Amino acid sequence: MSLASPQAGLWFWLPIALVVAGNIAYHVGLKGMPAGIHPLSPLVVLFATSAVATLVFRLATDRGAGLRDEIALAGWRPYVVGIAIVAIELGFLLAYRAGWKISTAVVTANILVAIALLAVGALAFREPITLSRLAGIVTCLAGLWLVARG
């Protein structure tokens, strides 16, 4: 679906707005984490809170399918994503403690992820690498250079 298509209404943009709002709260929260505590201690609270909130939301939006059955259908993927989430959380927390600015850490990480996923998309999912996508990567790298200079 094109971003300019008539179908790109509220329900199209609402999930992205949720991601943006969540990312802002996430990075502000991690950046403000006290430096003297063990980096994994706040992650314990973070994931316990996430688990409880997720379970409450799951129960509140039950569609009749059993949670245990759906978890079984998901297979190994949630476990890999769970480990990846810990890596992301810990990586950003340690980056902020190492002195990264909130503006440059996020931009740097996301641009590197975008470049890597361009390759993953092409190799694993047969997504085309087009000239416009390559131009987008070049533009992102130029933007990163500008942000890093500031």
> What gyration radius follows from the Cα positions, in whole Å?
19 Å
Q: Note the gap between the termini.
A: 35 Å
Strand content: under 5%
Global mean pLDDT: 89
Helix fraction, binned, reads over 70%
Strand element count: 0
Tally of helical runs: 6
Low-pLDDT windows of residues: none
Major beta sheet summary: none
Which class best fits the helix and strand makeup? mainly alpha
Q: Secondary-structure element sequence? A: HHHHHH
Silhouette: globular
Task: Domain count, please report it.
Answer: 2
Structure description:
- There is one protein chain.
- The chain is globular.
- Helices cover 77% and strands 0% of the residues.
- It has helices at residues 10-31, 40-60, 67-74, 77-97, 102-125, 131-149.
- By secondary structure, it is mainly α.
- Helix 5 (102-125) packs antiparallel against helix 6.
- The chain has six helices and no strands.
- It has two domains: 9-100, no CATH class; 101-150.
Briefly, what is this?
77% of the residues lie in helices and 0% in strands. By secondary structure, it is an all-alpha fold. The chain has two domains: 9-100, no CATH class; 101-150.
